[in-house]
Design goal:
It contains twelve helices and five strands. By secondary structure, the protein is α/β, with parallel strands linked by helices.
Length: 274
């Protein structure tokens, strides 16, 4: 009888301690979740078992858990920056076919990818016919900027002008201008693809002037710089914009075939073959 009582007491103590440990473990998981350390919370059970089995030490487990959490947080932060940048599609520099466009200096693009041009508040202007890769390169540089923690925004030129005009009509132009001026890297895509009125050109000038020697801008266009006066319906405004853009700028002229036309021709050839 005494032996049975002793066994019961031992079992009771063991279960109490086990319950206490389980409660502590659950509290730990809850605390990690409250601290938004979700990756650690999801992986801790496996590491707990490894520590209990003496496969790794407690400090080794904690180091691995925190390393993985840091990597996870960095990746999530990058996803948020890319989403906020509003890229229409994800295009990376590593995917660009320099052999198809030999006129592009790959080493120069690699230098841009270091973001050194941001330190000097320099601009980049990609000029070329539709489909030669201007947007791909600008998005690729934008994503690399996001990876390096640079506050970036990608916007089509026509959409940008519409937003500025709407703000002007609602008497909110100054506030909206300040918002666009704050981006460390502003990418304006397809300048000149659609007609730009004299008033729209002036709004564009105000934005470029507000960013002048303070922030960097990337512009893609299919219009030669010499023809901007015609596109903007004002030679004076065009000259004022170019004066501020080109002064600290890298002008990249892309001469080559269209990727899109090449893809269409390849697809057509495949269909004809069948």
């Amino acid at each position: 009888m005494k032996k049975l009582t002793s066994i019961c007491l031992t079992t009771s103590v063991f279960m109490t301690r086990l319950g206490s440990k389980m409660n502590q473990y659950q509290r730990l998981v809850d605390n990690l979740t409250k601290l938004n350390l979700h990756n650690m919370a999801a992986a801790i059970a496996d590491y707990r078992q490894q520590v209990n089995d003496d496969q790794i030490s407690f400090s080794e487990a904690l180091l691995e858990l925190t390393d993985k959490e840091i990597a996870y947080q960095q990746q999530e932060s990058l996803k948020r920056r890319i989403k906020r940048a509003r890229f229409p599609i994800i295009k990376r520099l590593s995917e660009f076919d320099y052999q198809f466009q030999p006129s592009i200096n790959q080493q120069q693009i690699a230098e841009f990818a270091t973001m050194s041009f941001l330190d000097n508040q320099e601009n980049i202007i990609f000029i070329g016919s539709p489909g030669v890769g201007k947007t791909h390169l600008s998005i690729g540089l934008g994503i690399e900027a996001c990876r390096q923690g640079v506050r970036t925004l990608f916007i089509n030129c026509h959409e940008l002008i519409l937003r500025l005009e709407a703000a002007q009509g609602k008497q909110h132009l100054e506030r909206v201008m300040r918002r666009y001026e704050r981006y460390d890297l502003l990418i304006i895509d397809e300048l000149g693809y659609l007609p730009i009125s004299a008033n729209e050109a002036k709004l564009l000038f105000q934005l470029i002037n507000g960013r002048y020697e303070r922030k960097s801008t990337i512009i893609t266009t299919n219009v030669p710089l010499s023809s901007w006066g015609t596109v903007l319906h004002s030679t004076a405004t065009a000259e004022a914009i170019l004066d501020r853009l080109v002064y600290h700028s890298h002008v990249i002229k892309i001469k080559g075939k269209s990727y899109r036309l090449a893809s269409v021709n390849s697809y057509t050839a495949q269909i004809m073959h069948f």
